[in-house]
Specification:
480 residues, alpha+beta, Pdz3 Domain, six-stranded antiparallel β-sheet, 12 strands, 15% strand, elongated
Length: 480
């Protein structure tokens, strides 16, 4: 061998080593970056799911909240009200009623529901100092009547009727008084008087009486009106109870009360039925193609079609399920229709996984069984399938994991987003991915947080399914 040939071979060897090192480093770096991004994503989801415990604690205490807006001086001023009155709750026992406006948590003014949940999460004790204004203006001002000033033509507000038990009467207001200002805010309308209380109370650093300027018998008076009431609301905070309530509650318009019960049951039904349909069909097709079918152009075409069907977008299967199963066959958009459509989606993957598992079985096992007089079906049933079972189950569970996390197919099929009952085979249904999709689209405070909690539940279910696949593969794996 000449020196030139040795030199060329040496250079080729160096190039192969350099190329291997380079691409190996790129692959390793890509894996590390992907893992870092995955960890960052999970941490971000966990941070967003933290308010779940505070939201559930607020719901148990009767503080089911909603953020509203006051149109004031060409600005949108948010405030928080009670939207769902719970008669036996701690808030009800303290005197809080439906539509009352939450103004302060301790010395902090409240503008959004999230502030209440944050305050509950960082409470040093189990008592929440809360200040609120009644959502019924008649409990404060009685009946207000707008009138036109005969001299100036300006609109003014007159107290027409004032019960003795009202806060205004106890503070010194009387029927016939004209309310002109609350703090420095002019009052020109009946509804505006209550809104002025909210705005003025939010401006204060802590709860206290508000200054109300009135006109009585042609003279101006100033009255200190204790419109904001205060109380210590007992709060029971428990992560385990919050998680249990979240998993066992139905969906709701209030994020503090919304849960995943319908979605989890729907997902379990969907996955169970899909496995029931896909396992015999997929394994049967794989056995036929591997053990019985002749090697000709037809089987090659079938294999090519199966491989192509495995890569078809799930939306296409959703169209098939909607048009053929739901509409043409009049099966409607019920759970059984969703499971059959999902079976079409994962069936090619189950067939491919089962065929690969069958191919791993050595031919020597088949030949040994044939040598002692076994039929082809006896060979498949008693020897090939038991050895291939770990791979078949692994492929099935991984395919079902995709079905568990699938949303596009079911959205197109028309899976319902809002259910307050547990679905059955012939009823409408929803699943966890659809519920997450719905909550993320809600603009109301808190839905993004419970959507993050639902994502964690979905990830936990998927990790459990993959762990089950590994366990089954190790348990049923046989040596030959």
């Amino acid at each position: 061998m000449s020196a030139q040939t040795l030199h060329i071979e040496r250079r080729q060897l160096v190039w192969r080593k350099t190329k291997s090192t380079f691409f190996g480093s790129i692959t390793f770096s890509t894996i590390l970056i992907s893992l870092a991004l995955l960890v960052a994503l999970i941490v971000y989801i966990l941070i967003n799911a933290r308010p779940l415990m505070a939201m559930r604690a607020a719901s148990r205490a009767g503080l089911v909240l909603s953020t509203m807006v006051i149109q004031w001086d060409a600005k949108n001023l948010p405030y928080v009200i009670i939207t769902d009155f719970i008669p036996e709750s701690a808030a009800a026992r303290a005197g809080i009623s439906e539509f009352d406006a939450i103004i302060h948590i301790g010395p902090e003014s409240v503008y959004r529901s999230a502030q209440v949940w944050e305050a509950i999460a960082r409470l040093p004790s189990d008592a929440l100092p809360i200040g609120w204004i009644s959502g019924d203006p008649s409990k404060i001002f009685g009946d207000l009547l707008p009138q036109m000033d005969p001299q100036t033509g300006a609109l003014r507000v007159v107290i027409d009727y004032l019960p003795e038990e009202s806060l205004g009467f106890q503070a010194g207001l009387r029927p016939g008084d004209i309310v002109t200002h609350i703090e420095d805010i002019p009052v020109t309308g009946a509804r505006q008087a209550w809104e002025a209380l909210i705005v003025a109370a939010q401006r204060r650093a802590q709860p206290g009486p508000l200054t109300v300027q009135i006109e009585r018998d042609g003279e101006l008076f100033t009255i200190a009106l204790p419109a904001e009431q205060t109380a210590q609301i007992p709060i029971q905070r428990s992560w385990w109870r919050a998680i249990w309530d979240f998993l066992t509650s139905y969906d709701s318009n209030s994020p503090e009360k919304a849960g995943l019960a319908s979605a989890i049951v729907g997902s379990l039904y969907l996955v169970g039925l899909t496995a029931l349909f896909a396992l015999p069909l997929g394994v049967g097709a794989a056995i036929y193609l591997e053990e019985y079918a002749r090697r000709n152009w037809l089987t090659e075409l079938i294999q090519l079609l199966i491989a192509n069907l495995a890569g078809v977008p799930s939306v296409i299967y959703g169209i098939i399920g909607l048009e053929i199963l739901a509409r043409a066959l009049k099966m409607d958009r019920v759970l059984i229709t969703g499971s059959l459509t999902m079976t079409l989606l994962i069936l090619p993957m189950v067939i491919i996984a089962a065929r690969e598992a069958l191919r791993t079985i050595p031919d020597s096992i088949r030949h040994a069984a044939y040598a002692v007089g076994a039929t082809r079906w006896q060979v498949v049933r008693s020897h090939v399938l038991p050895y291939a079972l770990p791979g078949i189950l692994t492929g099935l569970i991984i395919s079902l994991s995709r079905a568990m996390g699938e949303a596009a197919l079911l959205i197109l099929l028309g899976a319902f987003q809002y259910l307050t009952f547990l679905p059955t085979l012939g009823s409408y249904f929803t699943v966890v991915p659809i519920q997450i999709f719905t909550w993320i689209g809600e603009a109301k405070d808190g839905f993004a947080n419970i959507a993050a909690a639902a994502i964690i539940v979905l990830l936990t279910i998927l990790l459990a399914m993959n762990a089950l696949a590994i366990f089954l593969r190790m348990k049923f794996q046989r040596r030959w």
